[in-house]
Please model this.
Amino acid sequence: MFKRKEHTNNRPPEENTTAPVFTRAVTVGDSEADCRGRIHPGALLRLLQDAGSEHAEALHIGHELTESKGALWVIVRTAMEIDRLPRAGERCAVLTWPGQTRRVFMPRSFEMQDAAGAVLLRARSEYLLISAETRHMLNPDTLGVHIAAVERPGELPDPARRLPFPPDLPETELRVPRSSELDVNGHLNNSHYVDWAEDLLPLDYLRTHALHSLWVEYRAEVLPDTEVTLRYARDSDTLYLSGQSEKGVHFTLRAVYGAD
Model:
């Protein structure tokens, strides 16, 4: 068992759900930690996703609105830069705010702070609205979805459209979504792509290294019973991953690690 370090000297910011910048106080649970006692990257993405969803509900652009219009929110890309992953028992604050809509792409920024207010990580995701029936992209203007943009110093830019990948990804592994990995939209939740990526790394490596940056592009949803071939390669501390099936490429991912 890892020795849990308590963080109780300071308090994170008060929760604020309806302001342009949403703030949620969180304590990293033991069940969210990895073998070194840091928050698991997949659990981290789930925290950010839940904060974004809660803010969307408070701004009246969440499930109640989309269900009435036969639409779904989906994530297209995510980028993250990490200074330090918080540990089990650590009290933190998750901040999130919407960015400037660009045609059909609606960005949302995230920040995690420690109890003293120091920034632990920053992330930015791009969202789309799609039809719940056809899965085709929808225009937010035609649905009457308008989001007031917020800009904050230090926020990440929109995720890159493409990143250079090796010409060959020689390693392979087969995965099929499990029921516990599906979300309310009926497909593999975006956070589990990172779980799949980390499962490809040796445990001895993860004991001495931590995630420093992440980029994911979600090209096509992974539905139940889809056999996904994970094609990947490691170049020093960088993992390149592409998830493919007979229907084509579902996602691409680049994760950069550093000595912990």
Summary: The two ends are 18 Å apart (CA to CA). The chain has five helices and eleven strands. The longest strand covers residues 119-131.
